[in-house]
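call fold target=Solute carrier family 15 member 1
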Amino acid sequence: VKRSSTLNNNKVLGYPISIFFIVVNEFCERFSYYGMRAVLVLYFKYFLRWDNDLATSIYHTFVALCYLTPILGAIIADSWLGKFKTIIYLSIVYAIGQVTMAVSAIHDITDKDRDGTPDNMTFHVAMSMVGLFLIALGTGGIKPCVSAFGGDQFSEHQEKQRRTFFSVFYLCINGGSLLSTIITPILRAQECGIYTQEKCYSLAFGVPAALMVVALVVFIVGSGMYYKAEPQGNIMLDVCKCIGFAISNRVRHRGKQYPKRKHWMDWAEDRYDKLLIAQIKMVLKVLFLYIPLPMFWTLFDQKGSRWTLQATTMDGNFGALVIQPDQMQTVNPILILTLVPIMDSLIYPLIQKCVNFTPLRRMTVGMLMAAIAFVCAGLVQIEIDKTLPTFPSASQSQFVNGMGMALNVSTPGVYVGLIDSSYYSNYSLVNNGKIIFTIWSDTQACNYSREFGFGSSYTFYIPGNLVCQNDITATEDIKPNTAHMALQIPQYFFITAGEVMFSVTGLEFSYSQAPNNMKAVLQAGWLLTVAIGNFIVLIVAEVAKIPEQWAEYILFASLLIVVCVIFSIMAHFYTYINPAEIEAQFMKKGDDNDEDDKKQLQKGMEMVKRNSTGSHSYDGDDDDDERKKTKM
Ligand SMILES: C[C@H](N)C(=O)N1CCC[C@H]1C(=O)O
């Protein structure tokens, strides 16, 4: 059990200085992660030349892997290396992964014929896969350790400061995410190369790689100031063995002649330490509560897929600002940066005055907010559907050549093609805004310009006697999108408000309810809910196959409401504990004899029982040693 005296005494405004290094590390690491992620699908599609399906599947598999590997990192940290060393070693792996990605995106390496396209794609694919694997191992591995390590820097009586730390931590995540998702697409759009200038994916991956190195250096600089809890042996192996023994012992003693025990884990008492059993009970209680939580992430993670696709059917013209569909996602981190301070300093204290707004209640409301966000998305979809024809695909246009000779048509970045005489081109994807086409044959060339609204589609007729601009006639196959992207703001607001209540609170809750030697493991359990949520998106999208998009949104909202009701019932029966206090009861026994052992155990269990009566209220704000014991 951690004692205040073992913690570093360097403090600023009541906060340990060490957390400064931890939050800066998190900012740089999240910049690195989200920055790389922002251009990943485009890299797959345009550099590695994969089709949409393969690019999307590998992308989601990578994201899911990033939230599965925390279990590995947590086990290494809690059982073997400790959080500090685990963060250092896995950050090195992470940085190597990012550098590998940056190198894999240098087309010149294999571009022997210097035409701008890599000649040995297998090399680039293999390097990218190795890079992504190392990144997933690194980012996932350190994630539960960094948050838990941050929590470790606070002593038992600094609960309020620790809660603020988790809010600031979340702000840093989103600050890094916001900046990088703005910056790396700009870097990608630059042209670079030794022989041929191409889109600069190596720079878009290189800058996140550099930020990961900065993250590592910052973390190492803080080294002398951290409180570093020692790992306590191979705890996960002990946990598994203990659970296994409890189950087998229970099965062996099935008959009526054997007296019942209060908890099935108590069947492990014959062989295992009572402290370990009590700790396992704490962890299992929280993990049980996590079962419904992936559903929140199922909805949340559709921002990057369904909602972005929805935005492609909307008008992104905000006057001076023209927003691209994928840029709407930055609304989430922007709102996080605004909402976290407002919630912490205004909304929570106000609600707290009326009701005891416990962490689990906050998370329940967060889930409801996410469901409301999807109802909003459904309503917006109905609005869009009123305006949307189905053929041809939005934003595509074609030319019909009425001249007696073949013509070439192109715009900067798009070659529509060579159109034979009296023939028509394929539909080509054209950006919105003012587009200038160059039309040329062996004998003449001219420019034709036209304003393209978001999502509009045209067929252009080139007459036999082409002079240019005024000769070409256009028919509008699809009207420009009329539903404005601003309509998505309410759904972004609700999902982000939900995220603040659900995710920030859940992060802190996972820390506060974990026994000392399993803090990282429980953080990893929390992150596992994100991974499962991502898998559910893939499964539901495949299985449900609902033709109407608005109906799919409403289905997801309804599912989350059902899950939310289940969660609130489970949460009602959950009792907040103070793991340190329970652990202390067992530690105190020291060299005492068996009789004392029993008394201590009785006391510890009574405390757990007392907690479940909810006699104290969760005031969410005290600095003293008052214990937090309450029902949801
Ligand atoms: C960018 C999101 N707003 C966010 O902060 N997160 C999404 C998954 C968990 C969390 C993160 O740690 O990145």
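return ok
Residues 173-174, 177, 332-333, 336, 499, 503, 530 surround LPCSKXX3 (CB under 6 Å). The CA atoms of residues 373 and 494 lie 5 Å apart.
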